[in-house]
Amino acid sequence: MPRKLINAIKEQSLPLNDQSLDNIIETIGNARIVMIGEASHGTSEFYTTRAELSKKLIEQKGFHVIAVEGDWPSVQTVNQYVKGFGDEGASAKEVLIKSFNRWPTWMWANEEVEEFTEWLKEKNKALENKVGFYGIDLYSLYESIDEVLKFLSKNPEYKVDLEHAKKAFTCFEPYNRMPEHYALSTAHFTGECISEVSSLLKSLRNNEEKYSEEHEEDLNVIMNALVAKNAEAYYRAMMQDAKSWNTRDSHMVEAINELIKYHGEDAKIIIWEHNTHIGDASETDMKDDGLINVGQLMREQYGKDNTFAIGFGTYQGKVIAADSWGDPLEAIDVPPSKLSTWEGQLHAAGAEDKVLLFNDENRDIFNDWIGHRAIGVVYNPEFEAYGNYVPSRVGSRYDAFIYIEESNALKPLKE
């Protein structure tokens, strides 16, 4: 790896502190969509720094929508809490533990999110235009259908929609509330479930102006129906490699667009997701496999001037993850990155936390192809070199990058 990248990092990086976070906020300018990433779902500093940036965007730039990589029904409970719609006697800890009870629980039921949730609830008390906190993922197929049924059952005047919802629920009932069973069944798929959930969403949209705006009931029913439709498509596509990834990220973009439509076209939105979702896929080798992501689609739909993507990375430390899907969480050692990687070059430029800002004048300096670390909820350091580095043109993949020299594990909540 040429010394020029190390030298460029030395010359252009800023020490990570409150001032450099303010520099990021200033550089964001008038962008209305700010995407803040993470290199893992289990690193404390990624969550706390993302929260600090979000606080600044809310206080200094008037952002009032946060969309996160979580399921709509679970995150909606948090949204109700921070907006004062829910049980006033509850605490953020109680809400998070109760809402996020499906593996991997630690992604949102952790002390870092608890602190931000309490801050946001307190902040909203002084705001007329309260900041919303919404989930844009699609794993909640059954929970979302349940939510639609619950709403329509309590509002019998929407009996046409209720009949659509009952048919959709009946279609999925044979799979014992196990989406993976539904996915396996698609080898002999009849198309009935596609028709039912699409019909449900269309029917709800036709009547959405009639729904109550109180406590955002109108948004809640439409978003749950959207999740049901797209979750069905996702589980059907699970056997088709890249298609399921694209279905999921396309859903998240559709959900973001629904939030913007609901809050007004001038709404300012913060997006919290993994780097692999918010860092432009067209600037990685993901494009070679036909993969797209939220960051790429946001840039294409809203333009680079209206969007801003912030990536994260670490050289070494600890992370909360599991050995395999569904296994108990543990604090796993993250080994030092090799010199030939993006994180290795950042370390070689100086063993301290730092910030890099990319613009039209300096992007090319950081655009040589290089491996960039990504850790999921399942992680085995022994195989890291084979599957945890995404070849990227970092200077164009992001608009800013935050580097943590030695990171710490997230702190999951305990009952």
TrEMBL record:
Its Gene Ontology biological processes? response to antibiotic
**Pfam hit, one:** Erythro_esteras
Q: Which domain of life is it from?
A: Bacteria
Q: What is this protein called?
A: Erythromycin esterase-like protein
Q: Which organism is it from?
A: Ureibacillus chungkukjangi
